[in-house]
Design goal:
Elements lengths: L1 E2 L2 E2 L6 E3 L8 H9 L5 E7 H5 L3 H5 L10 E6 L3 H13 L4 E6 L4 H4 L11 H14 L4 E8 L7 H10 L5 E7 L11 H8 L7 E4 L5 H11 L3 E4 L9 H11 L8 H19 L1 H7 L1 H7 L7 H9 L3 H14 L1
Parallel strand pairs: 3-10, 4-5, 5-6, 6-7, 7-8, 8-9, 9-10
Antiparallel strand pairs: 1-2
Helix pairs in contact: 1-11, 4-6, 7-8, 9-10, 11-12, 11-15
Bound molecules: flavin mononucleotide.
Flavin mononucleotide (FMN) binds next to strand 4.
Length: 324
């Protein structure tokens, strides 16, 4: 698959979705190590970049061990998005991804993210201006529409392609659906099967297992799959899906020793980036899934949720290792 000049040398590329508070550099590197073909940063606010807000600038950090990586931007003003894209390009991503799909209130209230689906002219103006302003390929992540009565994705995708966008990832929900209901992949397939489209179309939404990946691919024929929630605390999802797609059998799930080692490494790398307190707090989101399937795990999970230091986490991990 080609994203502009960037080659992703796989029949079916597996992409790790951009996710706020999840896809920081240590986790992105883990996803790549475990079979993701490409990763994306958490979304960065164009206005935050222009203000040089520390938290936003940190989101531009990309490391060699995670390439190819896309840095994702969101915003509403054309000029701010162009300036932010220039700043972002200097950070050296392989692509710049534009977020036209976030349904969170504080984002859509400013006319950004998924609100852009109600204003395709502005969406296309931003896309076109950013494409002109930078040399790296520019991609888009969006949803099928705003609500049940406004699903403009087929026309919008054509216009984005005409504006020079190199790949579109589509989450098969409307903004109004947030994360409820099920993703409707039929509209993603409509975009993919539109004879005018020639850029890669990536399907996203509810790929949660090797079997769902196979089913989506067979039924909807997209160029690649993007996985979000199923990778939280479970970067092994990528190698499991890959193995199933290529051989028809899923590879063995990770052993407990592997889970403990990978999650501890994840925490230690996070600590060196953001300090012990924040890293220990943030990794809590991953625990339930790092230890998915262990019987009677609840007491350990409760203990992990109370940890505040690396030493405390190591102590509970030791107990988990002895208990199973
Ligand atoms: C906690 C969380 C954070 C997210 N952050 C982002 C983000 O920063 N940028 C983005 O484009 N989508 C974001 N998303 C949406 C996901 O990338 C993805 O489109 C969505 O979860 C559907 O895919 P899934 O069913 O595989 O999870 C986020 C979703 C969740 C649940």
């Amino acid at each position: 698959m080609h994203i502009g000049p960037l080659l992703i040398d796989r029949k079916t590329p597996l992409l790790a979705a951009p996710m706020e508070d999840i896809t920081d550099p240590p986790f992105r590197a883990l996803c790549r190590q475990h079979g993701a073909d490409m990763v994306f940063t958490e979304f960065a606010s164009s206005e935050g970049l222009l203000r040089e807000a520390r938290k936003t600038l940190n989101k531009l950090d990309v490391l060699e061990n995670e390439r190819p990586v896309g840095i994702q931007l969101f915003g509403h003003r054309v000029e701010a998005m162009v300036e932010a894209a220039r700043i972002t390009e200097a950070a050296g991503p392989d692509v710049i991804d534009l977020n036209f799909g976030c349904p969170v209130k504080k984002v859509i209230a400013k006319g950004a993210g998924a609100a852009m689906l109600k204003d395709p002219d502005r969406m296309v103006s931003i896309a076109s201006a950013v494409v002109q302003a930078v040399k790296v390929p520019v991609t888009v992540k969006t949803r099928i529409g705003w609500d049940d009565s406004l699903k403009p994705i087929v026309e919008v995708a054509e216009r984005l392609q005409d504006a020079g966008i190199s790949m579109i990832s589509i989450h098969g929900r409307t903004a109004r659906q947030l994360y409820g209901g099920t993703a409707d992949w039929s509209m993603i397939a409509e975009v993919k099967n539109n004879p005018r489209m020639h850029i890669p179309i990536i399907g996203n939404g509810d790929v949660i297992s090797p079997e769902t990946a196979r089913e989506k691919l067979d039924r909807y024929g997209v160029d690649g799959l993007m996985i979000g929630r199923a990778m939280i605390g479970y970067p092994w999802i990528f190698r499991e899906v890959r193995s199933f797609l290529e051989t028809g059998t899923a590879c063995a799930p990770p052993t407990l020793a592997e889970r403990l080692e990978v999650s501890l490494g994840h925490l230690e790398r996070s600590i060196s980036r953001k300090g012990e307190r924040l890293a220990v707090l943030e990794i809590r989101k991953h625990y339930a899934r790092y230890f998915k399937g262990l019987p009677d795990f609840k007491p350990f999970k409760l203990q992990l949720m109370k940890t505040e230091t690396l030493d405390q986490v190591k102590e509970v991990f030791g107990e988990i290792g002895r208990a199973y």
